[in-house]
Amino acid sequence: MANARLLAAAAILTLLTGPSPAAGQTLDKLQLHKVRAAAAEYRGSKAIHLTQMPDAEGEDTLAIVTGPELKDGTIEVELAGAPAPGAFGEARGFIGVAFRVQPNAAKFELLYLRPTNGRAEDQLRRNHSTQYISFPDWPWQRTRKETPGLYESYTDLEPGVWTKVKIVLAGAKARLYVDGAEQPCLIVNDLKLPPAKGAIGFWAGPGTDGYFANLRVTPQE
């Protein structure tokens, strides 16, 4: 099991930390679903630059990482999101990580950030800095309407700045940690989909310039 874990992590690490000549190979390891991806240098790091397709609709806008699937364990990644030039007024730089992604992005769980909310002067916006949704049945509109405040929380964020994200999965539970904090900023005790192995996906929401680097995945033993 330990060897399998190391091999899985190494395979995915290569995706985002390989030398620049391998950029084409890096992109080949992503299955793009309603998004565009390009190799980039961003704030001193080699990264994947992700944006939605202009005509994309719905929340299933993913760059799915090909490779070993994950049910339980830890996902760590650095990401940066900000409203793209010319984005609509409500754009927040939506950016996050999907997990347990099923084939063709038919179903997945998602934890994401709204970076421009982190230091907003409006306290209600600050309270919506993080978000959990489950595609397709539990979009943010439904969770906010039916269970206000349960699947959102505050954390300090800045748009366009590299942010370290860690997600810990165990059965029906998920914990979101930001920037090395010892305590999670968002706890989900009832993930909506039955626990199952699935892919990991990089997610950029509407009107977002998104960047991802240094993905690490550690399956639970």
Q: SSE layout and pairings?
A:
Elements: H1 2-17, H2 23-28, E1 30-33, E2 35-42, E3 45-52, E4 62-70, E5 73-83, E6 95-101, E7 108-113, H3 123-126, E8 130-135, H4 140-146, E9 152-153, E10 163-170, E11 173-178, E12 186-188, E13 198-204, E14 208-219
Antiparallel strand pairs: 1-4, 2-3, 3-14, 4-13, 5-10, 5-14, 6-7, 6-13, 7-8, 8-9, 10-11, 11-12
Summarize the structure.
Helix content is 15%, strand content 44%.
CATH architecture designation: Sandwich
Unreliable residue stretches = 1-15, 17-25
The percentage of residues in β strands lies in 35-45%
Strand runs, count = 14
User: Mean pLDDT across all residues, rounded?
Assistant: 90
* Fourth-level CATH superfamily: Exo-inulinase, domain 1
End-to-end Cα distance, whole Å, is 7 Å
Task: Indicate how many domains the architecture comprises.
Answer: 1
**Largest sheet features:** 7 strands, antiparallel
What is the helix content?
10-25%
**What's the level 1 CATH class?**
Mainly Beta
Strand order of the largest sheet: 1-4-13-6-7-8-9
CATH topology name: Jelly Rolls
Order of helices and strands: HHEEEEEEEHEHEEEEEE
What class would the helix/strand composition place it in?
mainly beta
- Sum up the overall morphology in one term: globular
Radius of gyration: 16 Å
Describe this structure in words.
This protein has a 7-stranded antiparallel β-sheet. A 7-stranded antiparallel β-sheet has the order 2-3-14-5-10-11-12. Helices cover 15% and strands 44% of the residues. The chain starts with a helix and ends with a strand. It has helices at residues 2-17, 23-28, 123-126, 140-146, and strands at residues 30-33, 35-42, 45-52, 62-70, 73-83, 95-101, 108-113, 130-135, 152-153, 163-170, 173-178, 186-188, 198-204, 208-219. With 221 residues, it is mainly beta. The protein has one domain (2-219): Sandwich (Jelly Rolls), CATH 2.60.120.560. The chain is globular and about 40 Å long. The protein has 4 helices and 14 strands. The longest helix has 16 residues, at 2-17.
